[in-house]
Design a protein that fits this description.
Layout (H helix, E strand, L loop, with lengths): L8 E9 L4 H12 L9 E8 L3 H8 L3 E5 L8 H18 L3 E5 L1 H14 L3 E6 L10 H17 L2 E4 L2 H8 L8 E3 L12 H13 L10 E6 L8 H13 L4 E6 L5 H11 L5 E5 L13 E4 L8 H8 L4 E4 L4 H4 L7 E3 L4 H13 L1 H18 L2 H13 L4
Parallel strand pairs: 1-2, 1-4, 2-3, 4-5, 5-6, 6-7, 8-9, 8-11, 9-10, 11-12, 12-13
């Protein structure tokens, strides 16, 4: 019981995978944020996810209770999905959470239906980028859009992390009053100094056969090696810049299913000595000051944490104009926005930053001001709590 004699509310965060991406960071920040001293007498957090991975390790270190459902995975598998559904249903019936907060499209439908049947009083779904914006055929997109709509119907309220997702969601039939906008927010990372960060990234790159020189224009990318991140176009941009004799090196901090494809592409383009696929790096944002610029080549995003974190580091960014990216970056004021699948535009933007370091520095300064004023972790937590409380009291 807390000081006001109100019962502690149990919140179950549910997410498909225990890797470390934007949605996982979001869940981690909320779960740990509500466990802080001023909130722990009001809320008790537990996180449910598929398999094991960096998220489970980080939550364990933070003292957050977790439950792993082995059959829960991103890809559709009818038997595994049925098993996961009944596991969630049993869990919700037994534990009787006050709030179930589901994240990601796959778990949205399964978790939402299980929570409804179990009679959970408050079901929240967070959209981290609508999946119908992915590169799929018309038939697949039609099914995905219907399932997304069904997820919103099952939830009592849906949080959109960007204005773009909020606007798109509002156009769905019969659910526009169930969608609210809460921007992602960050606590500024404990950045390492540039020299230390540069040395660390250079050491990681050297392990992949890439030497980073003192005068190289070092571009960073951070995120899972997934096709939605479209690193192919960042690699093609590097090849264009190398043809212009610009001393560029690209270090990608992340791991995933696209590794072999990207390694093969780098070799085909003749840039295997210029692109370091450094693998997963824990607390990667701490080392952002190693880079001269950050690149985001994604085909789909919600409101990408890494762009906000780059801003907090004062780092200029070249990013595709997808999802909520334009809500963070003001084109040619705090970064450069480019079209998707346009490596020539990425190359031109990076060349501009390389040849205009003072302008790039101003971009970084402007982005830092916006990150600090508009995208704080405290603001995100308080606005999310308001969503929880709107019908639970």
């Amino acid at each position: 019981m807390n000081e006001n004699k109100e019962p502690v509310r149990k919140i179950f965060y549910v997410i498909t995978k225990s890797n470390w991406g934007g949605a996982q960071k979001y869940v981690y920040d909320l779960a740990t944020g509500l466990s802080m001293e001023k909130r722990q007498k009001q809320y008790e957090s537990l996180v449910v996810f598929g398999g094991t991975g960096p998220l489970s390790l980080k939550l364990a270190e933070a003292g957050i209770k977790t439950i792993s459902i082995p059959n829960l995975a991103r890809d559709i598998n009818i038997f595994a999905d049925i098993s996961s559904f009944f596991r969630l249903l049993s869990l919700f019936k037994k534990e009787k959470p006050d709030i179930v907060h589901i994240n990601s499209s796959k778990i949205g439908g399964l978790g939402g239906l299980a929570a409804r049947i179990a009679g959970v009083p408050r079901i929240i779904f967070t959209c981290h980028g609508w999946p119908w914006n992915e590169d799929r055929n018309f038939f697949s997109l039609s099914i995905i859009k219907f399932l997304s709509w069904l997820t919103v119907v099952l939830a009592h309220e849906t949080i959109a992390v960007s204005g773009k997702d909020f606007s798109d969601g509002k156009h769905m039939f019969w659910v526009k009053n169930k969608i609210v906008l809460v921007h992602n927010g960050i606590k500024s990372p404990d950045f390492r100094e540039r020299a230390e960060s540069r040395a660390y990234i250079a050491a990681l790159a050297k392990n992949t056969g890439v030497d980073i020189g003192e005068n190289d224009f070092l571009v960073g990318a951070v995120g899972e090696l997934h096709r939605n991140k479209a690193y192919e176009y960042a690699l093609r941009a590097v090849a264009i810049l190398k043809q212009k004799n610009i001393p560029v090196k690209l270090a990608i901090l992340g791991e995933g299913e696209e590794r072999r494809f990207l390694e093969s592409l780098a070799a085909k383009l003749g840039i295997e000595k210029d692109v370091a696929l450094a693998g997963f790096v824990g607390d990667a944002p701490q080392y952002l000051r190693a880079f001269d610029a950050l690149v985001l080549s994604s085909l789909k995003e919600g409101l990408p944490y890494i762009v906000i974190e780059a801003g907090s580091a004062g780092l200029p960014v070249v990013a595709t104009n997808v999802g909520g990216v334009r809500e963070i970056i003001d084109d040619m004021k705090s970064g450069i926005l480019v079209q998707t699948r346009k490596p020539d535009e990425i190359a031109s933007a990076l060349e501009f930053m390389h040849k205009n370091p003072e302008k790039a520095r101003i971009f970084g300064q402007n982005l830092r001001q916006k990150a600090e004023h508009e995208f704080s972790l405290g603001k995100m937590i308080e606005e999310t709590i308001a969503v929880y409380e709107s019908r639970t009291k």
